[in-house]
Amino acid sequence: EEVGDLLFACVNLARLGGSHPTTALERANSKFVGRFEKLESLARKKDIDLSAASLTTLNKLWDEVKSEERQ
User: Fold this and answer.
1) Is the dihedral of CA 15, 31, 67, 7 positive or negative?
2) Which range of residues forms the domain containing residue 25?
3) How many CB atoms are located within 10 Å of the residue 42 CB?
4) pTM of the model
5) Number of domains composing the chain
């Protein structure tokens, strides 16, 4: 129930900020999928098995992908 309340509050916040909540969520999902595909590619280049990788390794790969996007 609390998660539903939180989601409702987020939708209202988006509306107050002038965003369309559905569009914002679609963009966020698209951004995540794109980054994850880049993460998978980077892991292959580095010969890292994602299913066996530690959380620390996954976070480092994620940060590297985000850093490359900023350049």
Assistant:
1) positive
2) 2-70
3) 16
4) 0.79
5) 1
